[in-house]
Amino acid sequence: MKGTVRILGFIALVGLLLGLAVVGANDAVAADGVTVSINAPAQVVKGDTFTATVDITNVAAFDAGQFDVSFNQSLIQLDSVTAGLVGTTQIPIALWNKTSAGTYRIIVNVTGIPGINGSGYLAVLNLHAASSAVGNSAVSLSNGFLNNTSSSEITATWVGDSVSVCEPPAITTTSLSDTVAGTAYSVTLGATGGNGNYTWSVLSGSLPGGLTLTASGTISGTSTAIGNFTFTVQVTDGQLSDSQSLSIKVTDGQLSDSQSLSIKVTSRPSDTNGDGVIDAADITTLERIIVGLESTTPGADPNQDGKINTADITTVEAIIVGMR
């Protein structure tokens, strides 16, 4: 009888210890695969507003939680925090407050629902980038705690992110030189801002036949068509972009009639008054130049002896009557 009592007492003791072990294990619920992470844009333009979410994956029986979000406040400012969403269930923001420079504590709490299961986001961070500074800022999570409907902790992995605040890309090339059909042409387009990893393309219009734009921003080739060609180029750094309208004029290399006439007229030394005609008016102009009533003109030395005198008048007279 005593042996039986001892055996029963031993079994009871083992059962009690096992029960305590089970209770201890339930104090922190190990939820495999639960991750809480910041999801922010890789790049934003200074002065712009943007959002980041506090994402959560594979949570079970979620009821409430808290966490700190930190960032470089000289580059980023938090304007507000709004509700999250897991599955189809909204996750209300119970409270949020700035606890130190660039650090905010956020509390989320789901009431009246018997636990939330699934993936989504716990909160939306509504932020804006500084308008006077550029650079990179980490957006980190710390002091994170999640609990289930039994008030037990849900263990999770907490992951931060980063944001680059930058100038927007801006194309600096605003005009292109003309070219002659059949000759080699090459020009490299310029841009500033963004992250510097530029990719170029033709957004609309067409380059002259024979010319192409590379992804690195070089227009090159040998033009085969004559005319004025207008097109719009775009540069992107993978996040942001800019565009610019440009044009290239392709000629055949020949002078126009007006250009040829101008060269012929201005090269005639006997046209002292520069009106394109050699007549008596040029003699009058020469006489006024000789006596100092007018300034010397390019055609005032028709005999080209380096002197302006009456011999030049005689030369013009001979030209008028066809003797020269």
Share of helical residues: 10-25%
CATH architecture of the largest domain: Sandwich
Number of strands: 22
Low-confidence stretches: 1-31, 260-267
Major sheet, described briefly?
11 strands, mixed
Please, how many helices? 4
User: Gyration radius, to the nearest Å?
Assistant: 42 Å
Shape: rod-shaped
Strand content: over 45%
Overall pLDDT score: 85
Q: What would you call the structural class?
A: alpha+beta
Tally of structural domains:
3
Determine the N-to-C terminus distance: 156 Å
Order of helices and strands: HEEEEEEEEEEEEEEEEEEEEEEHHH
Quick one: CATH class of the largest domain? Mainly Beta
CATH topology call of the largest domain: Immunoglobulin-like
What does this structure look like?
The chain is of the alpha+beta class and 324 residues long. The protein folds into 3 domains: 28-166, Immunoglobulin-like (Sandwich), CATH 2.60.40; 170-251, Immunoglobulins (Immunoglobulin-like), CATH 2.60.40.10; 257-320, Type 1 dockerin domain, CATH 1.10.1330. Helix content is 18%, strand content 45%. The protein contains 4 helices and 22 strands. The chain has helices at 2-26, 257-266, 280-290, 310-320; strands at 28-29, 35-39, 43-45, 49-70, 76-86, 89-91, 93-100, 103-109, 116-129, 135-148, 153-154, 157-159, 161-166, 170-171, 179-180, 184-188, 191-192, 199-205, 211-213, 218-222, 227-236, 241-251. Strand 5 and strand 6 (89-91) form a beta hairpin. Helix 3 runs antiparallel to helix 4 (310-320). The longest helix has 25 residues, at 2-26. Residues 1-31 and 260-267 have low confidence and may be disordered.
